[in-house]
């Protein structure tokens, strides 16, 4: 079957099972199969052009991979890749797929680290330390390192399988990040008051709320999703507590949460002694993270 027709049919099939991005997913699956076959990278644009011009054949295995996607296996598990800021991360079963809304946390981290770097320069100091508590695939830790060269970065992860993905991503990117298999709520003993930035995208879904997308409910590790209490904030609270201990005076803590948790998160930050507590909105204007500075 010509590629253009195979793509139309796949898009229809995926839309029927509720995957709104069916057409894009089908094109990305073709790109993945062609790249695997040829070696190297193939963009979605090349697939679209090849389908339109009739210069690209429908790859072998397309039907099977579309069937897997139709059964709601996440696109990122099928391609093995997730994109986060400037990174191409390797992902699969056993690790949380990084989300675009988490990317915005890095803007706040970068602003703070750049300010600190200037202050350090003036004071003749050169060490900057950043920590990602519950790093999963390593997305936030690796981005902090990539976008702040010279910063010492630690990614803490309790799940062994997730830490393996993070370690693999660290090796593949060649970024100088240390992945530590530790409980984020007790991480980095001895580092109290010495960290410039702590960032976290913790598990925060209320235990009673099951995510509606099967890609999330059935394929993201539940350990990365559920916050351990009815309001979803038990684990985030323990992580925030540890962050308050690790962060140096004047240091920054940024944490993602659900939209409905914004007020509770702001109260939690203030209670833990963070100052200038501020809600961060995602690109669609929803209150999805909170930041605060440790008292000087
Ligand atoms: N953001 C997740 C989701 O979309 C929830 C858990 C998390 O990010 N830590 O399902």
Automatic annotation (TrEMBL):
Domain Methyltransferase small: 129-205
Positions that bind substrate: 201-204
Record field: catalytic activity: L-glutaminyl-[peptide chain release factor] + S-adenosyl-L-methionine = N(5)-methyl-L-glutaminyl-[peptide chain release factor] + S-adenosyl-L-homocysteine + H(+)
EC number of the protein: 2.1.1.297
Matching Gene3D superfamilies: DNA helicase RuvA subunit, C-terminal domain, Vaccinia Virus protein VP39
Molecular function (Gene Ontology), one example: nucleic acid binding
Biological process annotations from GO: methylation
SUPFAM superfamilies with a match to the protein in the record: S-adenosyl-L-methionine-dependent methyltransferases
Domain of life the protein comes from: Bacteria
CDD domains, per the entry: AdoMet_MTases
Role according to the record: Methylates the class 1 translation termination release factors RF1/PrfA and RF2/PrfB on the glutamine residue of the universally conserved GGQ motif.
Family: Belongs to the protein N5-glutamine methyltransferase family. PrmC subfamily.
Protein's name according to its UniProt entry: Release factor glutamine methyltransferase
Organism: Rothia koreensis
């Amino acid at each position: 079957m010509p590629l253009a027709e195979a793509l139309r049919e796949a898009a229809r099939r995926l839309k029927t099972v509720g995957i709104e991005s069916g057409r894009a997913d089908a094109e990305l699956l073709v790109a993945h199969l062609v790249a695997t076959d040829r070696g190297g990278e193939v963009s979605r644009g090349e697939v679209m052009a090849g389908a339109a011009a009739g210069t690209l054949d429908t790859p072998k295995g397309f039907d099977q991979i579309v069937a897997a996607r139709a059964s709601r296996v996440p696109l990122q598990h099928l391609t093995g890749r997730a994109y986060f800021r400037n990174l191409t991360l390797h992902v699969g079963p056993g690790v949380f797929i990084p989300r675009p809304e988490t990317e915005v946390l890095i803007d706040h981290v970068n602003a703070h680290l750049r300010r600190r770097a200037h202050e350090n320069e003036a004071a003749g100091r050169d060490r900057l330390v950043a920590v990602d508590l519950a790093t999963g695939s390593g997305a936030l830790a690796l981005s902090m390192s990539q976008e702040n060269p010279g910063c010492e970065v630690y990614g803490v992860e309790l799940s062994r399988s997730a830490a393996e993905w993070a370690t693999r991503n660290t090796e593949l990117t060649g970024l100088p990040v240390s992945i530590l298999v530790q409980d984020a709520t007790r991480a980095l003993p001895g580092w109290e008051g010495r960290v410039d930035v702590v960032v976290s995208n913790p598990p925060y879904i209320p235990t009673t709320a099951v995510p509606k997308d099967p890609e999330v409910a059935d394929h993201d590790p539940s350990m990365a999703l559920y916050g351990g209490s009815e309001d979803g904030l038990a684990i985030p609270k323990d992580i925030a507590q540890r962050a308050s201990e690790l962060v140096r005076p004047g240091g920054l803590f940024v944490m993602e949460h659900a939209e409905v948790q914004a007020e509770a998160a702001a109260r939690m930050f203030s209670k833990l002694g963070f100052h200038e507590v501020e809600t961060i909105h995602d690109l669609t204007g929803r209150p999805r993270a909170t930041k605060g500075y440790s008292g000087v």
